[in-house]
Amino acid sequence: MFKAKFKKTIGMGIVAAACLMTTALPASAAPANVNDAKSNDYTIKSFHYLSVDGKDVNSPAQVNNKSNNIKVTMVLPKQNKNGDLLAYGFTSKVTLEAFIAKDKQRLQNKFQPTASGSCCTDFYEYKNKGGQYIYWRDGFTNLSSAWNDRISSLSTASPSSSYSTTLWEHTSTQGYGKGVMFRHSDWYGKTANMASDWDNKASAIQIK
C-alpha cells in the first residue's frame, strides 16, 4: 500500500478512479534483461505539483491545502532543483478523465497507433529493471499474491499502443487507494524507480 509523501509542490496529477476490467495480456514472470538500463535515475521520492485538477498552483500552501484530497499523481520525468519530480494532481475521477480526454486529443496526431513498438508495460521486482518481471497490455488487474507489494521499477508501453500506466496502492476490493500514473508519451524509453513510500507498495496495475 502507498503512503504518499506530499512535499511543497505545484502540480497536476493524481486521481483515484474505479476501473473496468478489459481484455489484457496475461502477466508472466521471466528473468529481466537489464542491458538497456542505462537511463537517468527517475526515482519516485517526492513530488513538486505544477497543478491540481488542471489549475496552476502558485504556492506551497495551495498544495498543502489540497494534498490530502489528491488521489492520483501523474508523474513527469523532470525534476526541480531539490530532486522532486514534477507532477500533476487530481482529486476526482471526473477531473482526471476531463484532463485525459483533452490530452489524448492533443497527442493523437503526434502518436498514431501502429503495428510495431512495445505493446506492454513491464513491472520489475528491483530498481533499474532488475530481477523478475511481469508485463501487462491493457486494462486493470489486481496483482497476484506473488506480485503484491513487489514492484520496484517499471518501463511503459509505447504511446502509440496505449496512453498511461497506473499503480494502485490497494486492490479493487479494498477501494484502490491512491495511485501514481505514468503517461506513456513522457515515459516511454525511460525507467521509473520507486523509493521509500512508493517502493514495493502496489497491489493493482492499470494500462489504458
TrEMBL record:
Signal peptide (UniProt feature, chain positions): 1-29
Gene3D superfamilies the record matches: Crystallins (2.60.20.10)
Keywords assigned: Signal
Protein name (database record): Uncharacterized protein
Species of origin: Bacillus inaquosorum KCTC 13429
